[in-house]
């Protein structure tokens, strides 16, 4: 168990280093000289040179990278090139908002997706099953921001059931928080729900045709108990999809946050990318990869718990 | 990154037939028509568009439809229809670049990883997994930060993030084709790796790639619009995402501006998604679930006597006991499956019976319907199978007319079942203990402690010397022979008066086979059970059966006491089976011995000797 955790931790750190370093060089190559973007076109050459010195851009790239990397390794991502505020502080302020909608969306996908998936698996070819197939085709492909625009127009502006835009923190008002994250979460979750349901349904049917299910029935176990066995065997695939979805939703959240005007990491990513604020972008990348690593780690733990064979590897 | 929900099992499909079959799907045809319209619009945009898409006319700002501007004007005073038409061009151009990039990266990597395996596979798979766990949207925004105006670079970057979708599907396909004998044959014949990759492998992955491309194009268009919505891309190139952003800014006052590009985007993506799913349906081997109509069709066909076929419709086999005295009695059983052009009958009128304490063998080669007969008794036919019988009696009671729930209540209590393949008949996710205790508690109503004690006791009874270790083991931790003992223990734990065993020794090592047969014989005597044992091996019959039923093509060709059948088989098929069994069985000596004797007692001794060996 300890070696398992150590192995996962190591591969997680490796991924973090590779992705952030890759993004570092990619960003530097892509952005080039950041000062015109940061200062605007009206800035004088002297102002630009001063800023270059201040942010260390006049040093060789590898020196810059080493300075950034050694600081980032201690958990400090430096300060923004635009307003010189701490990147850590800015992100810490915004992460709860993004996590609120992504976690809520994942929960929705898990609960509704699993429910629908089981219902379809129990009655393949039924009305619900056929509807799921149709819905999964469309909802899988439609981008979250498209869905969110439709939801805003309909529920936010036409029906006025939910606030169209804006964020209320849970400390301020819990009910308001739920209301403010419902529409964004739902628009993120719709595609995820059908994917989880489809995955579980297929896995369910696959397992239900296996020999041991007949044997369980032959022992006289009730349908409900047999279903529990089938479900446990079918769950790894659905769980894996759920973890992959979490990663996808983090990306999808960026656009959805902008539609709903939520102060999450999405709008920060957008503004930072438009002016070439590389330290902020790198901090955001690192935070996201950390989330991905954590989720994958949790997934491995759960998979080990569900499937004893995995545990021994 | 998102991945496509795509079945990994795909059948190789011929090009022409795929295309023809596609045209028979109405939904697919409609989707294809929509896509063709979008493509036509994109190509013909310069001729179709009534205005220059970037021409600003301040009078047109937020204009409602009409006055030569069919869809009105946007917030900058540009003609919406013209921008929509040119936007189709941008959208499709981007999708083509993205798909090409994903294809060129993912497919060669996937084919090589699947074909060569080893280090190639590990490296490629690590990169693919890493790409999937990278927050693609953020990296794309980073790329856009500098090269924001270079649409092509951005779309290529997007393609890199969608490449794992291609990689996974081609790798899985290549992996399965790699194992096909014709690839080995080609290698032995001296065809180079490069040539095999170019010819056989690419042909094998062709169909899944087409499907994946339709799905990827849909996702690419969605993500492209998302990026444009975020303000990425040149302002002078009209795009749907940009138009949606413009509409979004003015959503409250001028919702129509948002409506048009949303419809265009939604329709295009949905069309691609439906094309992909229709293609996926056509190329994947997905067993169709039988409908209710299929089932009733099978039932009618089985029940109705076919006119010109009377001899075939008479039950085969005979009964040796009165119905009330039987542990099991089956009267004129028929089993059928719905197939595309009618009904396939696998059991065609079978009658047999077994008294308490009697061992009945059902013998026949594979496909003779013997296992289907057993499953019909249990009422556990695979989905799509339907059984019809004049009567099924269990313990002297007619159960054939009972509801499915009442039939299920017989299982475990009145009928025990021992399956053929031990390793696939235990749930891999639960301990042996759990699997033995669960039915004892919830079917036989024992307390937890009593059930655990009974499970331990029955494990000892089936010859397991360390029951406590086995109880806490998972199925993959024990051997096949031990798993079969566990399954036998599970079948007899509830002390059913009737035990049916479906080829209980076929999957086992030769040395274990005799032990398991002996065990079944012992348990059968101890519990006074009737035992119905299905086998294709007359050696097994000689070892333990009292009477035997010989089946061929879903019908019984001969029924009788074991000694009589061995000594004097009436049906030539039985004689054939016996001689075939004798030729390849290792216990020929014992069989010869059994053959020469006449009393069942002698047979028993043979069985004991066999087990002790």
CATH fold-type name of chain A: MetI-like fold
Rg measurement of chain B, Å: 34 Å
- Total discrete domains of chain B: 2
Q: Taking Cα atoms only, what radius of gyration of chain A do you get, to the nearest Å?
A: 24 Å
CATH class of the largest domain in chain B, named Mainly Alpha
CATH class (first level) name of chain A: Mainly Alpha
Shape of chain A: globular
Helical segment count of chain B: 24
- Poorly predicted sequence stretches spanning 5 or more consecutive residues of chain A: none
Count of DSSP E strands of chain B? 11
Q: What is the structural class of chain B?
A: alpha/beta
CATH superfamily membership of chain A, which one?
A: MetI-like
CATH level 4 superfamily of the largest domain in chain B:
MetI-like
CATH topology of the largest domain in chain B: MetI-like fold
Averaged pLDDT of chain A? 83
SS-based class of chain A:
mainly alpha
- Find the count of extended strands of chain A (DSSP E, 2+ residues): 0
Description:
The complex is a heterodimer of chains A (313) and B (613). In chain A, 80% of the residues lie in helices and 0% in strands. With 313 residues, chain A is mainly alpha-helical. The model of chain A has no long low-confidence stretch (mean pLDDT 83). Chain B has helices at residues 15-22, 26-48, 80-116, 118-133, 136-147, 151-178, 181-188, 193-229, 240-249, 255-283, 292-303, 310-313, 370-378, 404-410, 432-442, 448-461, 467-471, 480-492, 510-527, 538-544, 562-567, 572-584, 588-596, 600-612; strands spanning 328-339, 342-354, 359-363, 385-388, 391-394, 397-398, 415-418, 498-502, 530-535, 547-552, 555-561. Chain B has 24 helices and eleven strands. In chain B, the strands form two sheets. Chain B has a six-stranded mixed beta sheet with strand order 7-8-9-3-10-11, sandwiched between helices. In chain B, strands 1, 2, 4, 5 and 6 form a five-stranded antiparallel beta sheet that branches. In chain B, strand 10 (547-552) and strand 11 form a beta hairpin. Chain B is elongated and about 100 Å long. The two termini of chain B are 61 Å apart. Classes of the chains: A mainly alpha (313), B alpha/beta (613). Chains A and B meet through helix 1, helix 6, helix 7, helix 8 and helix 9 of A and helix 4, helix 5, helix 8, helix 10 and helix 14 of B.
